[in-house]
Design a protein that fits this description.
Structural class: alpha+beta
Shape: elongated
Radius of gyration: 28 Å
CATH class of the largest domain: Alpha Beta
Number of helices: 23
CATH topology of the largest domain: Heat Shock Protein 90
Strand content: 15-25%
CATH architecture of the largest domain: 2-Layer Sandwich
Number of domains: 4
Number of strands: 22
Strand order of the largest sheet: 5-4-3-6-2-1-7-8
Bound molecules: adenosine-5'-diphosphate, magnesium ion
Amino acid sequence: MSAIRILPDLLINQIAAGEVVDRPASALKELLENSLDAGAGEISVLLEQGGMKLLRVLDNGSGIAKEDLTLALARHATSKIASLDDLERVVSLGFRGEALASIAAVSKLALASRRAQDKHAWKIESSGGATRFVAPAALSRGTSVEARDLYFNTPARRKFLKSEATEFAHCEEVFKRTVLSRPDVSFSLQHNSRAQWRLPAQDASDRIRAVLGDDFAAASVAIDEYSAGLRLWGMAGLPAYSRGARDTQYFYVNRRFVRDKLLAHAIREAYHDILHHERHPAFVLFLEIDPAVVDVNVHPTKIEVRFRDARAVHQFVYHSLNKALSAPVVDHNAARAAPANPFVARDHSVQSGMNFEAAQPKALYETLFADMARSQASPINNARQDIPALGFALGQLQGTYILAQNDKGLVIVDMHAAHERVVYEKVKNALNAGTPATQPLLIPATFNADTLDVATAEEHSALLRELGFEIAPVGPNALAVRAVPAMLKNADAADLARAVLRDIREIGASSVLNERRNDLLATLACHGAVRAKRILGVEEMNALLREMETTERASQCNHGRPTWFQITMEELDKMFMRGK
Ligand code: ADP
Ligand code: MG
């Protein structure tokens, strides 16, 4: 007997389900896309138990003919493309014809539909992929897809489901992504009979405000740029918002939500100059591009895309965003003076708005930066024997810079950036040596968290422990930090926990300790470092200078900015025209 056999259809669909509908949220994504592809103007979602018990999407779209109902549940059956040619210029969200078949294979599914010309609706039911006959049903125009008891027949998959709250959080995120993409469509979402969202058809800026809140709207700029067949529009958050924002990154290519390395890079570059300590900008951006020059069929869930001219797209996104972000200088500073200002520590909020960094003209900064790049060629430890390379502290300027004197003249140190680098190396060494020592907190730091954060803490508690953290849910929207890595014990535990959870979510648990480890280290270091505006004593300042001297790569902070620079006596003399 031959050892190789062709798998039965049901098994094929169950295998595919592992890719296309790995959790309720993925099934929801597929159903919402089908409704949008059907031209619906109104879509309502009903969930029970995080979508695990029931997931229902009802739309008023074009509907499905009675004779197509069976086909709709069959694998590789689609009305959206018929040829390779179609595939190459596909504009619909779906086209692979595997979503309904996959969902049907792992649930108890009921599909009811009625087109405008039909006298009444028809429905088909299926349990674990075995379809039953088509029967008349009651439904006004459109389609209703109802999936119950997801994975009831695939226990291995069911085991991977998390708590109800976790699965709901993922569903809600999918819902947000979808509603942001189509403000012209009205949406509602109900969970366990409670209304969670109700969004009328509205214009894009109202939709963005409704989903992301007034804070985001107030601290963001509108973008709309065209060039050579490309359009980028939407809203980009200013640095003042980025700190409060977690996971507020929505990028769409032809209204399809994507996560793409190339685009992410272009965006990061555009923010590079203005985004200081916070590495995660917030944005909702739509790229419109000729469908023929972008391949969306890279991944079963279509979350990745490939551009024919990747370089041109990168350049366009970078320049458009950069332009929009650098335009509103006045607004930008106004935003900084607002309470959300990330550069003014809360405990010194009474200080004058005069912020050394904000007051610096950019040209001067660049001059300093250029000097720094040159001085980086020489290591710090090149001083005379008696005077340390970075000298001794004279005092602190505006709570931000340490002024010190060495044998060459004046040394200016960006206190936070320098300390951040020192902490970074310490944390790196500690993690390389295994799990860092933990410091239990006498009083756990509790904080309000969104459901996704709670879900992340639950899901990745083992990883968190490995990093030296103990973070546990204490309610549907609250987390408690019970322990932190000992070397970060001076950080604000709640802020630190939030940042770590965000990293795990954005970077992915598998990469956070491997290829993206540096990002995590940077986050930990940023929070472990002294805050700007903290008043330091002379001994503390000298201690930092000594630590810098013995730390590798101390001349540059983790964001690639200089941590210190030197003004020599000759330079000072020149400034004051001494000896001329
Ligand atoms: P795809 O979306 O890739 O075509 P699906 O398995 O998601 O594959 O859906 C199969 C087919 O069922 C679609 O091509 C479409 O013709 C039909 N269909 C699914 N959902 C709807 C809906 N909500 N309204 C109208 N037709 C639908
Ligand atoms: Mg589909």
